[in-house]
Amino acid sequence: MIGNLFMNIFVPLILVVGISSTVYLSNLCNSSIEHIYAEQYKASQVPTTPLAQSRDNNTNNTVLSVPTTVVADIKPDRVSLAFGVETTNKTAGEALNRNSDLMTKILSGLYSNGVRQNETSTSAFSISPNYNYSQGRNMVTGFSATNSILIRSSNINSTARWIDNAISSGATSVDGVVFELSGKKLDGIKNTLIKQAINNAKNSAYITASLLGMKMVGIKSLYINDFENAVTNPQPFFKSSLAAPAGTNTTPIISGEQRVSMSLMTTWLMK
After folding, report:
1. For residue 22, which of 36, 33, 34, 32 has the smallest C-alpha distance?
2. From the candidate CATH numbers 3.30.1320.10, 3.30.70.2970, 3.30.160.70, 3.30.300.20, the one assigned to the domain spanning 78-180
3. CB 85 within 8 A of CB 172
4. Start-end ranges of CATH 3.30.70.2970 in the chain?
5. Closest C-alpha to 74, from 265, 247, 215, 227
6. Shortest CA distance to 202 belongs to which of 19, 17, 74?
7. Which pLDDT belongs to residue 17?
8. How far apart are the first and last CA of the chain?
9. In tens digits, what is the pLDDT along the chain, a chain of 271 residues?
């Protein structure tokens, strides 16, 4: 039997950069299951999943299961960032007026630098009293007004310029910069990765069947796992780290790449 003949044999497969797949082959003809190891993996990974062989009860063909994962690093095409203004004064009205003047100036500068009005929205707003505990009681010493706006845009190349412009106009914080993949781009990537994963699973199955002296008959089943998109967590930025003297270089903001992956399980029939 094939299981006895190839018991404890390691079968090397071709290394494909950025693709990790494991092949399972099982044969339940005998009461005990023999294991054959065969893995396709990255250089940093160690093969740990055994191959097992079985028979398909309906066709009496040998079943070969191939889990495959395809990974791609993609340049994001959208950015989200929020600018905040905090002002303090003796009265709530004075704090609000100063805050409104600064936010109006910030928005005007952003609109003149390519931000569209439909790409901005208010993300937070508050006016609160400031207290000073003295002589056994809290004393109101003034008021703080806080206003934050959120920008979501596909013009990611302007991110650094927008940050510099907002800080120079009076913004006291940049609450987060997040680079993302749009839904349209994700759909295109998903379709591409599914095709790559199926092709790689098919190639792995043919290679394994050839090494075992068998032939592929057809596919029995295919299961697609969830599409994963690893999004970088937003990082806080503050005025002290962003404000730069006149004449200095633009704040360096790098979008980098985002890792997306697609996993599927294919089951093939061999004889």
Report:
1. 36
2. 3.30.70.2970
3. yes
4. 78-180
5. 227
6. 19
7. 31
8. 12
9. 444 333 333 333 332 333 344 444 443 333 222 222 222 322 223 232 334 345 566 667 889 999 999 999 999 999 999 999 999 999 999 999 999 999 999 999 999 999 999 999 999 999 999 998 877 778 899 999 999 999 999 999 999 999 999 999 999 999 888 999 988 888 889 889 999 999 999 999 999 999 999 999 889 999 988 777 655 444 444 333 344 444 456 778 888 888 888 899 999 999 8
Helices (H) and strands (E) in the chain, counts: 5, 15
Residue 110 to residue 12: CA distance in whole angstroms:
57
Q: Which residues of 228-265 are buried (b: 16+ CB within 10 A; e: fewer)?
A: eeeeeeeeebeeeebeeeeeeeebebebeebebbbbbb
Neighbours of 115 (CB within 10 A): 21
Provide the CA 61 distance to its chain's centre, in angstroms. Answer: 40
Which of left, alpha, beta for 55 (phi over 0: left; psi -120 to 50: alpha)?
beta
**DSSP assignment, residue 10?**
B
Token pair for residue 231? 């999004």
Pair of tokens at residue 191: 């379709």
Sheet holding 235-238, edge to edge: 120-134, 137-153, 78-89, 173-180, 235-238
